[in-house]
Design brief:
The protein is mostly beta strands and about 375 residues long. The chain is built from 7 helices and 29 strands.
Length: about 375
């Protein structure tokens, strides 16, 4: 069993009890390029002339000033295929599993390309991508010819795509935006689970409840639906909500034949962005990144609550963020509390992260595979 995941801006592979950290070679090359550019301009910030003007700056490039995000990894014959964002550029790269590797394969690069997860079936890569990190949409990339097919559009954002076991549909989480009378986006509604069938070009809602977000949907071979459920909290009272915003954003489904199907859905939601300026880092943040950042502030409180509840491996995720199984007959079973991310193994076992550990779930038993801070994008690289 080989499991891949992302933690603390590093790629990790767990196999046979050993965890290996893999750096993004693209990121390392980017840092080197930025340093070369700075060095080439050093005449402006070094020497007696710079001292005279007060412009002395001999410091190396500060990685903290570079926006770097890893947003998905999937199996690949080379080892893994992963998504990375560096400042204003996003891309897909192939990397082998040798920590000492100096080169990696390039698949796709684009200005202002942001990712919300991906899943692979054969040479078809389901992705949630967009030029705005707050408005990502479902797309399919053919890895043979790099041909992209956009699936959704409109006032929504999608994330966590996954293929069904038979390849007949793609599941994803989707939330809609509400706009003010002047047309500005003011609210993000609860996430629901959608299923897109490529053959029919249809989009169906599988799971929706205005009280909850449903995230990271996965379909098991027996037809059961797995997901992470958490309370939907917009942080506001809604006494006057209907007076202030329009609650019918439009989702557009782009069928392969070019037809457009429109689905109107009702949403309320949390203030997403204001007209005031945001920091450079905030402009790049996806909802997933904002969730991680917010809960790091509450990490100790969450860990204490999980410990008090008797959790053998108390993590730092909120206890009300649960791993849920929904049987074909509608029966719901909470499998674990305080789950950040998870992956399904073909034999029915589950690998999950609680923010501090990567765990193997086998029925009522759980085993620690690794200690990992905020491990996410868990992926089965080899069963």
């Amino acid at each position: 069993m080989r499991i891949g995941y992302i933690a603390e801006k590093q790629l990790y592979v767990w196999e046979d009890g050993k965890t290996t950290a893999l750096s993004s070679i693209r990121y390392q090359n980017y840092l080197a390029t930025m340093q070369s550019i700075q060095d080439a301009k050093s005449w402006k910030t070094s020497g007696t002339g710079a001292m005279f003007t007060g412009a002395v700056d001999n410091a190396p490039v500060d990685p903290a000033r570079i926006h770097m995000g890893l947003h998905g990894l999937v199996p690949d014959p080379a080892g893994m295929l992963y998504a990375v964002e560096l400042d204003e550029v996003g891309g897909l790269y192939r990397r082998d599993l040798d920590p000492a590797a100096k080169a990696e394969g390039h698949v796709l690069t684009r200005q202002n390309l942001h990712f919300g997860g991906m899943d692979r079936r054969g040479q078809q890569l389901a992705m949630c991508i967009g030029s705005d990190p707050m408005m990502l949409h479902l797309s399919i990339l053919d890895l043979d010819d790099n041909e992209e097919t956009d699936i959704t559009d409109g006032d929504t954002t999608e994330c966590h795509p996954s293929w069904s076991p038979d390849g007949s549909r793609i599941l994803c989480s989707s939330a809609g935006y509400a706009r003010s009378d002047s047309g500005g986006i003011v609210k993000l509604g609860p996430y629901e689970i959608l299923a897109y069938a490529p053959a029919a070009g249809s989009l169906d809602t599988l799971c929706s409840n205005p009280a909850y977000d449903y995230l990271v949907p996965r379909e098991a071979p027996d037809g059961a639906l797995y997901c992470i459920r958490q309370p939907y909290d917009d942080g506001e009272k809604h006494d006057n909500l209907l007076k202030d915003i329009v609650l019918f954003p439009v989702r557009i489904v782009k069928a392969i034949g070019g037809l457009l199907n429109y689905f109107s859905m009702r949403y309320g939601g949390e203030p997403l962005r204001s007209n005031s300026s945001r920091s450079e880092k905030a402009k790049h943040r996806t909802p997933q990144e904002m969730f991680l950042a917010e809960n790091m502030l509450k990490a100790e409180e969450n860990r204490r609550q999980n410990q008090q509840a008797g959790d053998k491996y108390p993590g730092i995720c909120p206890r009300n963020r649960v791993l849920l199984r929904i049987d074909p007959d509608g029966k719901e079973t909470v499998l674990r509390h305080g789950v950040l991310d998870y992956a399904l193994l073909p034999d029915g076992r589950i690998v999950c992260s609680n923010g501090t550990h990567v765990l193997l779930l086998e029925g009522e038993q759980q085993t620690e595979l690794a200690k990992a801070k905020l491990a996410h994008e868990l992926t089965v690289l080899e069963a």
